[in-house]
Amino acid sequence: MYETLALVGATGAVGRIVLQQLQERKFPYKRLKLLASERSVGKEVRVNGESIKIELLAPGAFKNIDLVIASTPDEISRDFAPYAVEEGAVVVDESGYWRMDPTVPLIIPEVNPDAIDNHKGIIASPNCSTTQMVVALAPLHQAAGVKRVVVSTYQATSGAGLAGTEELNDSTRSALTGKTYPPKTFQYPIGFNLIPQIGSEKQDGYTSEEMKMVYETRKIMGDENIQVCPTAVRVPVAIGHSESILVETEKPLTTIEARRLFEDAPGITVVDDLDNQQYPMPRDCEGKDDVFVGRIRRDISGGNGIAFWCVSDNLRKGAATNAVQIAELLVKRSAAAAK
Ligand code: 2RA
To answer: What class of enzyme is it (predicted)?
Structure first.
């Protein structure tokens, strides 16, 4: 049913991993088309031992394509997704453009797989900082009802694409050699620094990245009453977003109960043994698909609260893996419907 596949943005930081994931997870496609803007047309990409030429992203490109996985800036997605759907394709989109559109399901397969059945051609994958947090919150929500979340993120430079990683390297090298570094991708040099701004100012002093965590969390968890107070910070780490999360629940949860809920939830690995200095760190989570949870504690400031630390590879579960899992979910649902 989803046999012909198009990938938009194959040469970007996330697109490269989507290609890897399609091979590693043995996604059952028969034909793969790579599409990009004029700049990349004609470039060849090796996929599974074969060389595929990048073709132009333009109307007509999606005829005879069943499924699209797209990792592009918002404006590109805004422009191409409608004609891709008109030409008969289903689009799994990683940009931010469609996520809050009420006609577009926003999917994390471990959390709200059933919402995918309402799609009208476009399915959105959430922002990386939201995805890992919601994977971790979902089992607590089911057991005890999440009321309020206070989260601080420590986000890797690859969240800003290949340019972000390059800037981390260049800025660190400049700092070590005593040179000044004029930042291009981030607001300030990121080497030996932290920048408490990701995105532009959106409302009440919160940034666009922070407000994504508020709105996307409510949409995925299907509960408009969940209150989220986020602070998003860029850190000098190449891959792997970390988050310090305090969650307040309706019903009380003990630390032991919370740990068991995390352990039993799909897509979560618990690494939590402070005595033996075991907790998730970005360098250990890089290249892995799970969301890692540790430092699980009760909230000693009062109320029904659990505090924990959450790390995930932002290019994998935060982007490519989640998109490929959405594509797998579509295949599974269509096979079930055909029976
Ligand atoms: C970042 N969350 O880390 C963004 C990428 N979608 O910059």
So the answer is: oxidoreductase
CA of 255 to the centre of ligand 1 (A): 30
Count Cβ atoms below 10 Å from residue 282 Cβ, excluding itself: 20
The pLDDT of 151-155, averaged and rounded, is 99
Q: What is the pLDDT of residue 182?
A: 95
Residue-wise pLDDT for 103-152, tens only, equals: 999 999 999 999 999 999 999 999 999 999 999 999 999 999 999 999 99
Could you tell me the distance, in angstroms and rounded to a whole number, from the CA of residue 156 to the centre of ligand 1?
8
What's the total number of domains in the chain?
2
Q: Which member of 119, 141, 241, 285 is catalytic?
A: 241
**Phi, psi angle pair for 152, to nearest 5°:** -120, 130
Tell whether the model's pLDDT for residue 77 goes beyond 90. yes
Pairing mode, if any, of strands 268-270 and 241-249? unpaired
Q: Do residue 179 and residue 297 come from a single domain?
A: yes
- CATH code where residue 205 lies: 3.30.360.10
Distances (CA, A) of 109 to 12, 221, 277, 322: 23, 12, 32, 7
Q: What's the domain range around 51? A: 4-126+319-338
User: What confidence tier does 338 reach under pLDDT thresholds 50, 70, 90?
Assistant: confident
